[in-house]
User: Fold these one by one.
Assistant:
Number 1:
Amino acid sequence: MIKVFEDFNFSRVGQMQSLLEAHGIRTFLKNEFGSSVVGELPFVEVIPQLFVLEEKDLGHAKELLSAEIAASQPGEDWTCSACGAEVDGHFAQCWKCGKAL
Ligand SMILES: [Zn+2]
């Protein structure tokens, strides 16, 4: 079993699991209910984690995940709604006034 992805946002991890399962990759989700026990366990123990069960699927899984992650990154430049500055798509915050996207 090899860990391929983890995120504090459980729905994000679930989304990645669906993606891999849709491509015939068998997966295992750890700490699925972790958020309910935050505070009782060390923080690191409760990050939802996605594993692939078989090592032969690892390369494929990583390809799918990195494509998915790249696709979800902001790529387009955006205009700040507060001050009207043009902000590079790599930034989630206005360089001029600090407002979040
Ligand atoms: Zn701004």
Number 2:
Amino acid sequence: MKPGVPVPVDPDSSAPLANVIFPTDNTAVEPVFSPEVTNVVQALTREWEHQDELLAAGLRPSLTALVYGPPGTGKTTLALRLAKQLQLPAVIVRLDGLISSLLGTTARNLGALFDFANRYDCVLILDEFDAIAKVRDDPNEVGEIKRVVNALLQNLDGRSRAGITFGLTNHEALLDPAVWRRFEVQVPIPLPGPVERAAIVEASLGAAPVALSEAKLIAWLTDGMSGAEVSTVCDKWLKRRIVDADTDASPADVVVQAVATTAARYGTSAASRFSNRDELMIGLARDADARFAQADIAHLLGVNVKTVRRRLNEPQSEVAHD
Ligand SMILES: Nc1ncnc2c1ncn2[C@@H]1O[C@H](COP(=O)(O)OP(=O)(O)OP(=O)(O)O)[C@@H](O)[C@H]1O
Ligand SMILES: [Mg+2]
């Protein structure tokens, strides 16, 4: 496949059915995952890197992988990254877009799309894969719909050795066993834990000069957020740090601001648990796993270490009602 290759289009709307990303344009970063997820991903990648040896031994690499988990956890990034690593074009299809057109057309679109993907060595990425489940639940035109779903499943089965096919979804509970069964590899992607968040913060802040304690505070306060949100917080923080430089905001204030404006949907996000500086100080000091030193806390809150020590030694109730 070469840049400029004609991508099949929907005959009614003339909209392209897929978006092709060539390795030279593929900017996917290496996503940060837990060791468990990384192991699954590496096993899959290695199968494809060694496909010639596998084929020579009468075996073949896994052809289909279902990647599922909350929004913004790195599913698309994972699929794109694999394409980049294998130096293959990525053919990205939003299944919901493809399926929402007329049913007769949908079946034809699916056929055209898989014909296209099977003609080339490529990584086929079927995003919003749960769209298939919504089709099945539609009470209209039951027979026709079944045909579409079956066409998709058959096309999946028919994906030959031309490359791996990813199904990506945030709504894995909607998929029935017949669909799950189609995927040889299943990769659950959970929200990032503290270690992964720290690594995402480090990657997102790049070369910017950052006090370690501030990066650590970002990772700590983004508990419960996806990788995408953690990296959004980092972008906001980098900006706030500059625009708030002439205010008396402490380093912690700047982080809390960046987190709070990204966390609207988390009523219980880590940032919203602390309504004032003392509560935050105690939260930081009491989290034995996070290991914030008193000097870190002092820097973050813009006070001296003595003040931190004194405040932490006061009975909690006095501090909380300060
Ligand atoms: N695990 C991660 N490691 C590093 N960066 C991440 C991770 N997850 C998300 N990001 C950041 O968030 C952006 C969006 O992630 P991505 O599109 O891969 O998520 P997704 O799981 O496909 O989301 P959706 O379910 O909404 O499609 C990435 O470009 C990256 O900057
Ligand atoms: Mg995605």
